[in-house]
Amino acid sequence: MTQFKAQFDEIQNPAVNHLFWMNGLQEYLQHKNHPQLETYNKIKKALLYGNVYAMQDLCMSEIRRGHINISDGFIRMLFNQYTGYEFLSHRKVLQYISHCIDDEYIRMISSWSIENGKKASLNDHFSRGQMLSKLWMVDQLKVLFPQNRLGTIAHYGGWYATVAQHLFQHFEIKNYYNIEKDHTCLHISESFNRVQRNNNWQFKSIGCDVNDIHWKYREEEQDVKPGDEYFIGGVQNAQEEYIEIKIMPDIIINTSCEHMDETWFNNIPKGKTICLQTNDYFSNEQHINCCKDLDDAIAKYPMSKTIYTGEIETAEYNRFMIIGEK
Ligand SMILES: C[S@@+](CC[C@H](N)C(=O)[O-])C[C@H]1O[C@@H](n2cnc3c(N)ncnc32)[C@H](O)[C@@H]1O
What we know:
By secondary structure, this protein is of the alpha/beta class. It folds into 2 domains: 3-123, no CATH class; 128-325, Rossmann fold (3-Layer(aba) Sandwich), CATH 3.40.50.150. The protein is 39% helix and 19% strand. It has 14 helices and 9 strands. A 7-stranded mixed β-sheet has the order 3-2-1-6-7-9-8, with helices on both faces. Strand 6, helix 13 (263-267) and strand 7 (273-279) form a beta-alpha-beta unit. Helix 1 runs parallel beside helix 9 (128-144), helix 2 (37-49) crosses helix 3 and helix 9 (128-144) packs parallel to helix 10. The protein starts with 21 loop residues before the first helix and ends with a strand. Bound molecules: S-adenosylmethionine. S-adenosylmethionine binds next to strand 2.
């Protein structure tokens, strides 16, 4: 720990810069109108801004709860802006948050962070924009599929696939495949969705560039009926043997369109249901295929039947969503 800083005007501990993911969790709790949102906001004020009233309230709550072996660490974290406490790992902060906030999704993020907190990029993944965009998608799917059945999902470029948990919670899902070309995401996403992963691979990540997916059509194989088109995903089992999985998605989700060209879309058979998101965040260097507005997105990803189109504004960009049948 660096030397104690008494001056109140010095409250700016750079160690909190990697905690901006707290904004995304705030959006999540706000969205579900969580009864402990106020407590969460106090935690954020204390940790990120050194708000003394928030620190005082949270310390009093700790005293009332009684001392446990991790209480000292919690108090050090709360005072970080004045003491320069540097050891604010994702894991520890999430442990404190889930100690104070009773929420299953937050508990999942916390336990997942024990193994993945250093590998995963939490600031990007749980940014306000990412969180809002995913919750918006889940909300719209709930409206459009009121029978609460999504069948088999192929999530193209699903990253850490934390949104899968919101979908598992609200929908009957036969299988959820995260088709990801970044192999580091495969384990990270399976770890987040380990309950479904361990349920006979109800959730499974597959290492593959979605532009290389080879769909089996009727024209190629006489036994493939329209609607039954499928592709083969290759994975390794626990014995490191190569296994082929037949993937026949009822819906293809792609929330990463800005990261790839349109080959993936052009290859999808006609009639398949697709839910896609893209954005106008041109200044992000990872984005190679943004859209200037919703009309641009609609023209780029034409559907034979459009079920939903819309846009939301986030702090840094606008996000567009199209749901329809190709
Ligand atoms: C930074 S993330 C996702 C951001 C996006 N807005 C979202 O919310 O999901 C983009 C993900 O797409 C994946 N990706 C990009 N191009 C891909 C491709 N051709 N095939 C499979 N995955 C791809 C990347 O590996 C990465 O995990």
